[in-house]
Amino acid sequence: MDQSFIQHMDFSTEDITVADYASAQVAVEKFSWAEESKKIEQALRQNDDFCPPGISLSRGDNQLHIFMSEPNKYSVLLTIPTKPAKKTFFSFLSSHAPQPISYENLAWPQIKKLLELFYQDNFEQLKNFA
Question: How many CB atoms lie within 10 A of CB 101?
Fold first, then answer.
């Protein structure tokens, strides 16, 4: 099982067990988004530092981070490995480093769709998500 965790706005983390799409969906829906949003509002009013709260889900080399950088504004950072489309003589020079993709100011239905695509391994749609 891959490592997944919850990040709270006070910089604390807690490991969670996520085995599949159904358990990821439950973890994302059960996360205390409203409570964390109130804490962000308070930190902003008091000019305090905070960590964007969210959930990090890992599947092998693939990672999906759902987080809130402002009250009730969701963003996603997706990391998926790149592979050369075609093997060539110089393919040994190409990088297989993870390719980060970020999406900002998403509505909740978009978050749910990204989560579904992530667990379907539908990387083409994830790369071109709009």
Answer: 15
